[in-house]
Amino acid sequence: MESLSLLADGLATAVTPENLMWAAIGVLLGTFVGVLPGIGPAMAVALLLPVTFGLEPTQAFIMFAGIYYGGMYGGSTTSILLNTPGESASVMTALEGNKMAKKGRAAQALATAAIGSFIAGTIGTMLVVFFAPALAGVAVKIGAPSYLAIMLMAMVLVTSVLGSSRLRGFIALFIGLTIGLVGLDMNTGQPRLSFDQPLLADRLDIVVVAVGIFALGEALWVAAHLRRRPLSVIPVGRPWMGRDDWGRSWKPWLRGTALGFPFGAVPAGGAETPTFLSYVLEKRLAKKGHEFGSGAIEGVAGPEAANNASAAGTFVPLLALGLPVTATATIMLAALQGYGIQPGPQLMTEHPDLVWTLLASLLIGNTLLLVLNLPLAPLWAKLLRIPRPYLYAGILFFASLGAYTANQQPFDLFLLLVFGLLGLAMRRFGLPVLPLILGVILGPLMETKMREALAISGGDPAGLVDEPLAVVVYAVIVLLVVVPLVLARVRPRLTPTEAAADAPAPADQSDKESVR
Asked: Is 342 helix (H, G, I), strand (E, B) or coil?
């Protein structure tokens, strides 16, 4: 009850007309900047952070919360409309959201993303309010072996369970893991796959990789087929979600929230793993699973909810431990320190007014995001009325701008072209994109956690399974791999009589004539 009382005091401070104005300005600015391809929420917050410096701390936090949630929604907008994820956590949204847009359901994809973001962000913020200290204590106890096991399970699910071809899935995963190796070895300092190029000493920026594979690869693929098969304008479709869309979205919203928040609350967590797991879960549970890969609304609703719930969960280690677990959280930590506030165990007792105002501002910013952007979903969808040659020309421009802005290095434009050609080749030979992106994102994290676990155990491989959670996850991995193989082997084969009975009846002569 004390938490509710303190939150009510924070809301009372944040809902004055002037403060609501700053929150609305923050949401609009964050959305407009986040909509630019290649610019995710972290970059949107970093670009707009100086705007808050001249304000009072309370007003700055309120505007900052609006920028934060606006930038996140803007990133999902580009993923859905332009197939251009602004950050790694938006990759899953692009997979199904862009397919929905091409089928004339862009408004529905944007709407389910907005509503799912609102639900997940609100529930996540309330969980932070009530359970931040306790959750921070639990999160610290989850070690490197468990992280390693969870990331390995995500790879197994994507390549062995969900893919239509295991071979192609493993080829794509191998390519992604290889790309993730580029850069200096964190332990020895030796360059790996850098080809004596100093600009490859750092890890490849995931924004450049994702924008190249998705946006530039798609644009090159479309350009290669323009003369062979002229492309029409993408239809916009009806502007609002129907009853069926609501029925198919509300459970993924809740499941995505339940998956995303714990991953955000653990130090060194992030939104990539829960969004991948949410996509996997929704594909397994969906009644219309055959629609996945061609525009399933569950594939947008679940990962978007997981993304925003994870974003809310990052406030647990940030406020309770002073540990930023994402790039956006790092920028938020810098903003807090700019006002002389050092997050940590004593934060809620030393600066209670600012903390509760910040949490209340997150609720307000999340609400304003829904109120302002849900009516704009049909307007954003009308961008697809632009003829695709002109649309993809604009995508190339903004993709190049986003790739250059990531590190402000012209060399990144060359990398963008390389990954664009790789994306084109993958489309040509039918290689799935998801395992490649998963390998690029989780490969370096897996290496770090494996080395950390082995260092703690003194090099003993048993250190990889010395946590109960890790043992449980490895058991699940074994079941995921073995059970389908066993079922395929013991499943009774059809007898010749049964096979003939199940075979389609031959067409009669009239049908053959009609076919001719």
From this structure: coil
